Amino acid sequence: METTYPVQSTQQKTRAKNKQLPWVIKAIITVVLAAFALIMILPYIWMISTSFKINGEVFKYPIDWIPKTWHFENYKQVWTGPNPFYLFYLNSIKITGITVAGNLLTSAMAGYAFAKIRFKGRNFLFLLYLSTMMIPSQVLLLPRFILFDSMKLINTHYSLILPGLFTVFGTFLMRQFFSTLPNELLEAARVDGAGYWRTFWQISLPLIKPAIVTLLILSFTSHWNEYEGPLIYLRDKHLFTIPLGLTSYVEEFGTNYVLTMAASVSALLPLLIVVIVCQKWFVEGFASSGLKG
């Protein structure tokens, strides 16, 4: 019996180490991820800090992450100065809001049709529509400009709104989610007298809320930050969106980084609000989309 005590003690120590090992690994992973997260948010911290400084403190080394004097007048000058930022804000809200709403509606309707409505050539038409994703957007710039010019839409917000109302990726995403809904549920609705529109609007659409929120965030981010389209189609400054508005500040004030950073922080707030509010459904949508075929 005496010879078994050291063996039992060694086994107990081994089991204790095995139990502690996952905690050690988790701690290491947590520290590494925290370090990467800090590296990723450092530019944003610098941007916020710079927006409250004066130009002479922007490139000071070592960096003063917390300004010694907070210059809130930078934001006042951005919003009420020669180029009032609220005008660019309103333009971006108008264009992005209409575009995202139309995008969600058309993508959901097309995705539902391709997934649940049987018609001749459905799969071929969907593959043909999906193949347009391989066409680079730059190839369409010149034909689209000529088309909008003939329609007198250049230097109007319609030139930015109309192309954004339809998206191949949104249709594909919605179609994948609608495909997972059981056909028995939709057939039961038809037996009860529900038509295609009521089945789509009242039964199918509420069941794919994660997909809707996912497309909403992606579409909102894309159109809110779009620079190429406004640069090509807009001429008058009062029509500019936020990305073009930022460049106008740089052109007028030279390298006035504090005003540029103040405007950038203001432009970032709507994106943060949308992501924070919709984060739960956004993560759920991406997680479940990986399981759909």
TrEMBL record:
Gene3D superfamilies (alphabetical): MetI-like (1.10.3720.10)
Signal sequence bounds: none
Domain ABC transmembrane type-1 positions: 89-278
Matches recorded under Pfam families: BPD_transp_1
Domain of life: Bacteria
InterPro entries, per the entry: MetI-like, MetI-like_sf
Keyword tags: Cell membrane, Membrane, Transmembrane, Transmembrane helix, Transport
Annotated membrane topology: Multi-pass membrane protein
Listed CDD domains: TM_PBP2
Transmembrane segments: 23-46, 86-114, 126-146, 158-178, 199-220, 257-278
Localization per record: Cell membrane
Family: Belongs to the binding-protein-dependent transport system permease family.
Descriptive protein name: ABC transporter permease subunit
Lineage, top ranks: Bacteria, Bacillati, Bacillota, Bacilli, Bacillales
